[in-house]
Amino acid sequence: MTTAGTLYSQPNNFRAFRCLSVAEYNGLKLDTPEFALGTSNKTPEFLSKFPFGKAPAFESADKKFHLSQTAAISWYLASLNDSTGLLGKSPQDAGLIQQWIAFGDTDLFIPVSQPAYMVFGLTPVNHAQYQAALPQIERAFAVLESVIKTRTFLVGERITLADISVASILRVAFTYVVDSAMRAKFPHTVRFYKSVAHNHVCSKFFGDINYLDTFKLTAPKKEKKEQPKEKKEEKPKEEAAPAPAPAEKPKNPLDLLPKSSFNLEAWKRAYMNLDTRGTDPAKHSLAYFYANFVPEDYTVVKFTFKWNEELKATFMSNNQIGGFFTRLEASRKYMMGVGLVQNDTKAGGVEGASEIDGVFICRGEDYLSLIKAAPDWESYAYSPLDLNNADDKAFFEGVMAWDLVSNGKECVDGKILK
Ligand SMILES: N[C@@H](CCC(=O)N[C@@H](CS)C(=O)NCC(=O)O)C(=O)O
């Protein structure tokens, strides 16, 4: 593969996915050095080459050419190899491709980004603004649906930059904003998206995709308030998915560990499908767990919310857990978890008297590295559980069975990270 140059971007940037996918299609290698948004893009050296101070940014292999803006970088990379046809076959195709790129980056991304930024904590939660964005999201989706209904690709008969660009925006939409109920209205768009995002090239960069179940407009915890509001375009860290690296490279150091005989995916299925308490490993998930678990390969961790006094209602607490779990997407492959809303039902179910308690089962010892995938990880306190200790075991089982009693509070709701 010819090296086209260097793409500067923080890992897991949906904008970089577009550039990296295009380069891969065109048989071009891009170096992706370590890059931390907020520092690397602010150095005098970076700014001298890229005055926008934003990522992604491209530098040619001979270091003489510098380019910013995702649309420009991906167009440039697409233009370096005619044979793949990523820019179409005619000036008309090129015009149509530009049309779809502009549609994706404006008509689609702007309304989608509004609720997404609220959920990430980059802008304050604003229900009126969300309500105003919804019809715009639906309108953009309806256009896409009507066009893609009878087509495989947006322009011509083969994949082009138009498809990759629009799919990169749909990834943000489907992960954070457009939930299963809304997706059901746009089956052709979902089909189109899957055919692009999951294809043999794009999937290397788009990574595992967590389709949002239910959208809830809640902000993450405290520390997010410190995010400068003017950074509206800043890509949220939780857009995290496997690093934009070639597939042959391990996505996570945990991939280098030998396979554990305790298969996390099998455990998730057992947990979801079996009753929890009981003694038969074929029928009861806790029995299955004890029959199969390999403590040397995993860490079982207790987590508790630090700001329980701020929880004003059960649904808020549950949204808090749901958001946290959604933002753990990049680590989901290596962990399983249950978070419970505990309420003081004995005191009459007083709203606001709730707390959040939960358990993660994490591959390896370094559980914090996995949990840090969620930008709001510091809103919780963590401590490893020793399942040979009776109290720890009781806590673990109480959480798993959703029958925990903690500080006189009983479980009223919860979420599962699976
Ligand atoms: N219009 C630009 C937006 C780039 C952008 O906002 N990038 C974010 C990271 S995903 C960024 O660099 N934010 C830092 C900042 O705004 O200072 C593009 O499409 O490339």
UniProtKB/TrEMBL annotation:
PROSITE patterns: EF1G_C, GST_CTER, GST_NTER
Residue span, EF-1-gamma C-terminal domain: 250-418
GO molecular-function terms, A-Z: translation elongation factor activity
Keyword set, alphabetical order: Elongation factor, Protein biosynthesis
Region (Disordered) location: 222-257
UniProt protein name: Elongation factor 1-gamma
Record carries keyword Lipid biosynthesis: no
Alphabetized InterPro entries for the sequence: EF-GSTs (IPR050802), EF1B_G_C (IPR001662), EF1B_G_C_sf (IPR036433), Glutathione-S-Trfase_C-like (IPR010987), Glutathione-S-Trfase_C_sf (IPR036282), Glutathione_S-Trfase (IPR040079), Glutathione_S-Trfase_N (IPR004045), GST_C (IPR004046)
Organism for this UniProt entry: Wallemia ichthyophaga (strain EXF-994 / CBS 113033)
A Gene Ontology term for the protein's cellular component: nucleus
Record field: transmembrane: none
